[in-house]
UPF0273 protein NEQ174
Amino acid sequence: MAIQRVKTGIPGMDELLNGGIPKRNVVLLAGGPGTGKSIMSQQYIYYGLQNGEPGIYVTLEEHPVAVRENMKNFGWDPTPYEEKGMFAMIDGFTGGIGRAAERERFVVPDPTDVRSLIDVVKEAISWIEENTGKPPVRGVIDSVTTLYLTKPSVARNIVMMLKKVFSGFGITAFFVSQVSVAERGFGGPGVEHAADGIIRLDLDEIDGELVRSLIIWKMRGTKHDMRRHPFEITDKGVIVYPDKVVKRRKLVLVRS
Ligand SMILES: Nc1ncnc2c1ncn2[C@@H]1O[C@H](COP(=O)(O)OP(=O)(O)OP(=O)(O)O)[C@@H](O)[C@H]1O
């Protein structure tokens, strides 16, 4: 039987994934600052909404109002879908502080406490089920790194706890993982093993120009492309180029 897949909807990406992400996979979207992790996550969620697939988005690094504004800049206004009960924005940023936070439907009272975050996620899933008759298909946490910045030793446990909830409800998720500019890993000890998939995004200076590229490091349940491909961020979102390959320039030391 063919496996069920969730299309990312990001032009070029599903080709690299042999058709899409296997359903229920939790995929780490790992990369340095400004590499495009949030934009790619928002594009993933919005593609689903447009195709009748409910979604949840947990924002831990940005105000939910700023996330909606950023999405609108790309033409991805989530508000009508929130009104229909198809999309839940989970505010893990404000802790309920501020006027705008009072208007949010799902607010995590203590964003540093993973259990309180999980409770609100479950509430949002039930709300979507009540409104649409099905659980969300897609989910995003932006970023999971925030949850263990000060306690890296529990990183893997936290990712496992969240993965159990998301994949338990059949949700296919992007967990955004922040890595520092020169870091080769995927952000946090052991998280790379807990995740079902890893997509690594990079921004490199080549010949005085910043070049965006990505590579699918792993994806359980499917074969996938193994090469590094360039991508661009445009006014309409991310476009990946499956026919182009980026070969990293090596740093050559010249002795005088
Ligand atoms: N309309 C646009 N057209 C082209 N590029 C854009 C546009 N809007 C934003 N960008 C690029 O996207 C980058 C931000 O992307 P994004 O917020 O997804 O990064 P991120 O990987 O989530 O970063 P961080 O970890 O710092 O939050 C900007 O630095 C800019 O280079």
Summary: The chain is about 30% helix and 25% strand. The mean pLDDT is 94. Residues 31, 33-39, 178, 233-235 surround adenosine-5'-triphosphate (CB under 6 Å). The chain has one domain: 5-240.
